[in-house]
Amino acid sequence: MELNYFNMPFAKKLLKNKKIKQKVNNCLNFLFSPECEMTGWVDYPVQYDKTEFKKVKEISKNIIKNSDVLLVVGIGGSYLGANAGIELLKNNKGKEVRFVGTNFSARDLLEHLDYCKNKNVTINLISKSGGTTEVLIVMKILEDFLKKKYKKNYLDRIIITTDTTKGYLREYATLNNIETLTVPSNIGGRYSVLTSVGLLPFAVAGLDINKIMQGAKTSYDEFKTNEFENNNVLKYAILRNYLYSDKKYATEVLGSFDPYMESFGKWWQQLFAESEGKDEKGLFVCPLSYSKDLHSVGQFVQQGKRNLIETLVYEENENKDIIIENIQDESPIKYLEGKSFNEINKCAYLGTLEAHKNTGMPIFEMKIEKIDEFNLGYLYYFFEASCAISGLLLGVNPFNQPGVEDYKTNMKNLLRNN
Amino acid sequence: MELNYFNMPFAKKLLKNKKIKQKVNNCLNFLFSPECEMTGWVDYPVQYDKTEFKKVKEISKNIIKNSDVLLVVGIGGSYLGANAGIELLKNNKGKEVRFVGTNFSARDLLEHLDYCKNKNVTINLISKSGGTTEVLIVMKILEDFLKKKYKKNYLDRIIITTDTTKGYLREYATLNNIETLTVPSNIGGRYSVLTSVGLLPFAVAGLDINKIMQGAKTSYDEFKTNEFENNNVLKYAILRNYLYSDKKYATEVLGSFDPYMESFGKWWQQLFAESEGKDEKGLFVCPLSYSKDLHSVGQFVQQGKRNLIETLVYEENENKDIIIENIQDESPIKYLEGKSFNEINKCAYLGTLEAHKNTGMPIFEMKIEKIDEFNLGYLYYFFEASCAISGLLLGVNPFNQPGVEDYKTNMKNLLRNN
At the top level of CATH, which class does the domain B2-33+212-394 belong to? Predict the structure, then answer.
């Protein structure tokens, strides 16, 4: 990955500033120290559980053999990472993966059940705590569905991904002899995509999970070993944090010119919003999909309130392509004759970058040679590490999410008292 | 619709303030005056072209009869409104509608073509100017696809929706005797959902377009006749504008507890971002989907930087439902036994409203009895009118989008010179 930045005249000096260097080193020391909790993800690309990894592969092979669809039941960090990668890279080596249990909508669940009625189905329940309301409700309905379909053998159609030892789902799995995978207890939901939480859905969808881990390891190695001056994880964190400290900036948008990056944007949004949005701090983060959104929020990005930062992820090569040929002389797009979709998309990207640069807005440009498993793993780790450092620089705990409890508590009280 | 607002102690006084009343009256006078351009949408619910409306119905009947899929080719205002309504209300009286031409992705287009290869297809090209690059490129590829499938008769499979007289697509339709529908020249893309731009896709998807227009008319009547004190269109605009003028607020989120409202959120986002995001002004607007996003941006909404305004759209009755029965005694959701998804979703809504109120954040609550065609039409018009007044109060022209041109100009220059 190549990281560039524009409209940040302060950057060069800042990245050489000794006080900043010291501050970042303090964050790094803390992140790698035992006092910092929920950091199991930090060394995970080199210290992941190889037995578990092998188990993921075996289970996925079995699902690909005996199922048409894998229904993943999870909310937040339990589905966003897997959804992102599968939208980008699903292929015909695997099977369809659908995500349910992200809401309390009967219509949504019934539509999934209707879709699955004549198909062979496996379900993967994912809840680290083992007690997520959305997951347990949908689990109940899906179990009834599986019972009708597979009679006595329905439990063979369930995989539970949860804490190693604790929680209702772990107990339930033990009691009923259900196949399980684990979420390490020191890794939170939004940092869990490289664990079984993401890896099983990836493998079922036909993604090469070895390559994902290799990409993550490369990013990890760069993060651990690159000098301060060449460390992109740190650069992104430091510059973001500096921009935030200038009260002018309220929002960061993540723009991409690949429509299949939309779910990746939602993963990125959760990562940063949950890690930094606390103690009345943080940038509001919002993913955008270009060129679509250039005909929408694009107007605001170009000419609206100057409180935005933009991060652009750009893929230099896309595989599938179409050449545009035999265009009528009268057509306004006559000049595009002989051009390919990729060429046009590249010019849309460069044209947008130029237009956005001209607004004076601070822009990060992340160039990826190709979106494949390796670079996907790389990006996951890159953003996780950078978000952690950014959060620590901001002075918040990037690994908790106390604000998510408030609606849950109210909801449960209302439901108990009705 | 019921409009409530919370954490706006200034509201009562403000809505009685004579200066504000005068300012709003000036905006209204301007909006209804001939000097204000691109306001064909304002009286449209009572003055729409009945012959065109009839034509939409006839064309849609024909498409339902002879096609499995309608491919709508359009970007921005040419698809967002239709996509929103169809996601909410598609039914088995109609046929499938898919939206293409919103990007320069070969993969996206190829996947649509692959899906359609054994199906009967009609395409609806929508571009008011008749020269939108995304639309003309995809048109070229789709025409080749139709030619192969329908030989000489392929032109019968195309409907063009464009300006009454001007532009390449209009000329092309005349020359080739292609069926057309019109976008009135005084209605811009993001205010066009109640014209043929939205109505044809709606009708093909099985939505009752009479009821949509009735809902819009009811909203229009309320907007035109209700006293200042009871005029929800004006209230929402005035309070939003007041909050904006307090420099504290940077972002408005639109939250809904219906996952099928996501596309409606994208329509709302374009409407406000393109109408107000200019002259270095405007709120950043972002739709959220709850409860999903409560496990993501929800953390920021609850505890992050206090620069948010929230608008909640809540549907009191949802039709399809599931009752949760026979829950194990050990399950953490035992207390939900006998409850329905709707009941739980309602408590999730009320629990969230309470939690968000407790943050002190200004909140608008829009209660809809039921999301149906009538209320959909009502909501479209409500937001259009409110956005227009809000933009005029902000001192911008809510009916142009000059910033959208910048990337296009750059892109075209790059493509011409390569």
Answer: alpha beta
